[in-house]
Amino acid sequence: MLQVNQIQKSKKSYRVKRPTQTGFSSPATHYNEPRIDLNDVLIKNSSSTFFVRVGDANFIDYNINVDDVLIVDRSLVPQPGQLALVTTNNGFEILRFSLNGEEEMQLWGVITYIIHATL
To answer: In what residue span(s) does the Peptidase S24/S26A/S26B/S26C domain sit (predicted)?
Structure first.
C-alpha cells in the first residue's frame, strides 16, 4: 500500500554565515557554499506536490522498488509515456499514461521523480 505524505519546506537557513573577524581571513573562506535544497531543485509547485513511499514490489516493471520515494505533482497534465499515479478500488496504482486507454481511471497525479536507495 502506498503512503502519501505532504511536503513541508524546510524553515532552516542553509546560507553560510560569514564570521566577523579581525586580521587576515582564511584562504578557504571563498569555498563556502550553501547546501542544495532538493525541494528547490525537484519541486515546481510545492502546494500540489507530494511524496509517496512505495510499499510493495508490484511496480518492478517501471523500475520502482520497495521503499522508493515517488515525487508526484497533482497540478500536471500527463503526457503519453509518463508515469501516473491513479486511484483504484484497492488503493493506488502506477500506470504509464497513454491516449488510447481502454478503461476509465481516476488520475491522482503525475510522477515527476523516483528516488531510489542505493544501499
So the answer is: 21-95
Distance CA(35)–CA(13), nearest Å, equals 9
Q: What CATH code is carried by the domain that includes residue 96?
A: 2.10.109.10
> Tens digit of pLDDT for each residue in 11-38?
776 666 666 666 666 666 666 677 788 8
Total domain count, the chain: 1
Q: Which helix (H) or strand (E) holds 89?
A: none
Nearest to 4 by CA among 74, 64, 97, 78: 74
Q: Which residue has the cell 508526484?
A: 72
DSSP letters, 5-39, are EE--------PPPPPP-SSPPPTTGGG--PPP-HH
Question: Over 70: is that where the pLDDT of 114 sits?
Answer: yes
pLDDT, residue 73, reads: 96
